[in-house]
Design brief:
The complex is a heterotrimer of chains A (403), B (295) and C (350).
Chain A: H1 3-28, E1 30-37, H2 44-60, E2 64-65, E3 68-76, H3 81-94, E4 99-102, H4 106-119, E5 123-125, E6 142-144, H5 149-162, E7 167-173, H6 176-191, E8 195-202, H7 211-220, E9 224-227, H8 231-243, E10 252-255, H9 264-267, E11 275-278, H10 287-300, H11 306-328, H12 338-345, E12 357-359, E13 365-367, E14 369-377, E15 383-392
Parallel strand pairs in A: 1-3, 1-4, 4-5, 5-6, 7-8, 7-9, 9-10, 10-11
Antiparallel strand pairs in A: 2-3, 11-14, 12-13, 14-15
Helix pairs in contact in A: 2-11, 3-4, 5-6, 11-12
Chain B: H1 2-32, H2 39-57, H3 60-66, H4 69-88, H5 93-119, E1 136-138, E2 142-144, H6 145-167, H7 169-179, H8 181-186, H9 191-216, H10 223-238, H11 243-263, H12 271-282
Antiparallel strand pairs in B: 1-2
Helix pairs in contact in B: 1-6, 1-7, 1-9, 1-10, 1-11, 2-3, 2-4, 2-5, 2-9, 2-10, 4-9, 6-7, 10-11, 10-12
Chain C: H1 3-8, H2 21-47, H3 54-80, H4 87-104, H5 109-131, H6 136-156, E1 166-167, H7 184-207, H8 209-226, H9 231-257, E2 259-260, H10 267-280, H11 287-305, H12 310-323, H13 327-340
Antiparallel strand pairs in C: 1-2
The chains are: A alpha/beta (403), B mainly alpha (295), C mainly alpha (350).
Chain lengths: 403, 295, 350
Amino acid sequence: MNAVRKITSLLAGAGLLAAASTSALAQDKTVKVGLLSDFSGVFAQLAKDVEDSWMLALEERGGMVAGYKVEIIKEDSENSPQVGVQKANKLIKSDNVAIFGGVISSGVGIALAGVADKEKTPFVAGFAIADPLTGKFCSPYVARTSFSANALQSAAGAYWAKQGVKTAVFMGPDYAAGQAMLAGFKNGFEAAGGKVVLEELTPFKTTKDWGPSLLKAQQTGADMIYTFYAGSEAVQVVKQHAAFGMQEKMPLRGAMWIYDEALWDAMGGVQMNAIHVTNYTNALDTEASEKFEKAFSDKYGRLPVASNAMGYTNAVAIFDGLAKAIEENGGNLPEDKAKIISALASLKLDNDPRGPVHFNKDNNAMQDNLYMVQIVEGPDGKPTHKVIDTFPYGEDLPGCNMK
Amino acid sequence: MTFFLFNLLNGLQLSMLIFLMAIGLTVIFGLMDILNLAHGAFYMAGAYFGYVVFQGTGSFWIALAVAPLLPLVLGFLLQYFVLQPLIDRGRSAHLDMALLTFGLLFFTIGLIDLIFFETLGLTFMSIDKPAGLGSYVDIGTFYPAYRLFIIAVGLIVALIVWLILERTVVGAVVRAGVDDREMVRAMGVNVYVVFASVFALGCGLAGLAGVIAGAELSINISMGVQILIPTLVVVVLGGLGSVKGCFFGSLIVGMTETLSQAYVPALALFATYLILAAMLIFRPQGFFGRTPKSV
Amino acid sequence: MENTKDESWHPLVEGDESRHDPLDEVANADHRKFLITALIGLVVLIALPFMVGDYYVSLLSEILIFGLLVSGVNLLLGYTGLVSLGHASFMGLGAYATAVIAALLGYPVWIAMLASILISLLIAYGVGLLSVRTKGVQFLLITLAFGQMFHAIAEKTRVTGGDDGMTNIPRIDLGFIGLDADHDRVFYFFVLFCFVVAMAILRRIVESPFGRVLVGIRENEKRMLAMGYSTFPYKALAFGISGMLAGLAGSLWVQHSFFVNPHIMTWEMSGEALLMVIIGGSQSFFGPLLGAAFYVLAKDLLSEITEAYLMFFGLIFVLVVAFFHGGLAGFAGKVSERFTRGKSGGEERQ
């Protein structure tokens, strides 16, 4: 804290300070970027995955964007909106970042969208798939590089109905994300002729036993259970579903969270042969995917997973968006930071490992395809993914009225 | 009808898991006036150490036999070298011990996070069920064999604890201690060793519950806090220090959680707390408890 | 209320000395000491925001907001001897009331704040009526049960966004004095204003006959009962007031973070409030504020180093409960005692 800044802030408050420090930054050509993610709490692993991909993307760019040296400032939002808001304030007001991104949790993401809009500092969600983030809470200062719950789940619902699945039970945690996943799946599944016969929402984070819900599902005789659980809840549901001998009669399906690679060890083998939808798998054999896979495994000695790919898109969009905004502004960071988001949203990420990615008018990422994968035994005897089908991506829900 | 019967089995299974936790807590409370909020930490210690032993040996049974020893030893050390000396130095047992063990719970969660996640990079762990218990049995519908195993363990432990307390000299001392601590001291029994041993056994049982849950549920950082609350409810329902009360309290909580989830999901989040609050308002001494002797 | 009874419960009165003079002197000395401490504290709190950056100004606001919450918790814990594990739910009530009235219904924020204070007072008083017949561990558990039920309601309520919560909650409109509370320094001074008013009222309460009865209940409830006090309404009202302070804290908190969700009312949050009170010192008026400051600043510092900072807080908490019962305030009291010994006639309590 130097004396000049102190006096500036004393006299003029936050607005002038931000402007003064932006021009100061331009002289020594450093741009600060905030990596704000849920490094502790249930999403800790996903946050780490995102960070690894950020470092890879930064390394690929030699640590520079458009002549600026990139300085990454890492903060932990602890999967808590309160902490997230506090850390975002630190990044904006104390570190003067040009842009920040990374966040996993939808709750934190929605809270940060409010901060970004208020403080006029760009925020790019790395995961945070709740529909309202780029719907009701959309802003010229907010973008998202993952996807919305509805886009993924309605596509998956339509896919299964077209495969001849007539009835399904939906199981998920009874909170906003669970409800959003249910609505998305139901939209796609029922529009394509399927019927959700039971909506079983279990108390979030307090359920200890899925026996009662699984028994209820059995009673319906539906063709499959479609589910959204993550982390330890996912482990418990998958294990208990198998323990009740339901794998043959009523398969348990869902998106990548329920059968996340990070959970395979804890599932102890019962995940084998399960089928789920995902927006990236290291079993993809496109040129862009192979290139990312090689770069990632060279650096970290392991194969990338879906959350790595999501983190990679996040970082690439932020770095390349920054570069584009700086170039469009004659080699300097634009004063109006909304220009960073508009530059970012105009990017065409044709070489994204997930397949071509672009942004819609709400600044939300859209990709061309989704993938249906099965967990099978690999050549080394360890479980791995096999892509069994590729199908079209879904739509975002309406709701954004950008000023 | 079978739907109802299987729900009863599920309820019984959950009840027995909670019972393994609650029995230690209630006897410790009855005997020493310590509300051990760190009981959840010992449950975690059992589960995480169970995972380590399982990874080392590949055997569920060895993990089940060895892992509870860690919380058992830690429990003895905590009571004998930390809690009891503090009580003797004039810390009121009741609230100070609840607060202190509450801090200990936070400490343990942070420590486990530091070791397993930040250092080893492990987030979600589980212990594989042994062959034979990993599958399901056909009793009208497929039912997980492991759940029947949990019910059996719970019933056996309940029987053993009851036999020890009702039929042995040690049990007589402990029962006398619950009723009147001064009398036991007057009898010339080294009451500190008895206290620490009972504390250790309670923690060991919590560790046992942790290993068992580690195979059916999953091992994660919030498991200790999650199980603590239903356990506290059981202790209140049954009456502090009552083994019989603890058993029936566990049944009430386990059945309430299971049946509300099966039949009235809208109430599932509230049911247990409603019972807890109503009990404390109308019959604070619990179903089987005596009026608490100290404040 | 007859005065004789109250005086005999003044913490400094030990024997049966001549009734008026020494007591008044001690009380006046006490009061002087309090005023000096409060004045120095106020000067520091006014000067600080001009010496630090924007981010630390928002941390200062946070400290004062938590200070309100934990002073409420301490009215029960320090003055009445009741340990509540459900106070976060009253903070949540105040927060949600402000969010709903200001953001959903569109009323001015000052009306929402007054309504939040009233709502949290009434509901906390109601919960108090049901809870304060129990004590000790049973009281801890019944407040936990009520807290969890409020938390469950917040999770289940769709209009407030369930687990996602609500965002874009406005701050108070200070346009009538030409200021914009969206600036953190301005908002800080608004929080400070609320804090000073609330603490002044709280001080009046604990110094009043009502406050003496509460201390009497903590020291020996049976004796109070034997003296003819029905302790029950006192405890229920204390519960209501402490819930009201938590509600005010919640109302300020949503304005501070523009955001609320049910995480603010988990029992872990209530537990953290207890940590702050104990670490700061439950036996002194400003102890909880010190605890809040320590907690917020140490958390900010530790979380830069490790994500497992709960470990350190747990450890510090254990050590304070075991060895330093007066907490930070008790420690500071002992230090200042060194300098003023013989003059003021001893420490406040304990």
